[in-house]
Fold this protein.
Amino acid sequence: MAKTVKSTVKKETKTKKPVAAKKAPAVKSVAAKKAPVKKVVAKKSAAAAPAKRAPAASKVTTRKKVVTAEERFRMVNEAAYYVAERNGFAGDDQRYWAEAEASIDALVVTK
């Protein structure tokens, strides 16, 4: 009996080296087989275009909007109201109208 006990003790005390895990073989799936992709030439968008330089401050021109005489009258009328409101409606109506005309004429061109 001594032999069997001794032999089992020796087997237990031996250290086993870790076994490296085997890699699974590569499996080709059906999804991996794709149809050939057609090359599409993308159109350049406005965002992809190079940025243009802003004109110098001295060369900046503003475009004036062309309006009819009736539209200009309504615009001046409304602007005069806001000028009068800003001054608490205390003052000369003709001065408010002249100030409103000057500001509207700077913005628009009459037909």
Summary: The chain has a mean pLDDT of 74. The CA atoms of residues 74 and 80 lie 10 Å apart. The beta strands are 65-67, 108-110. The first strand starts at residue 65 and ends at 67.
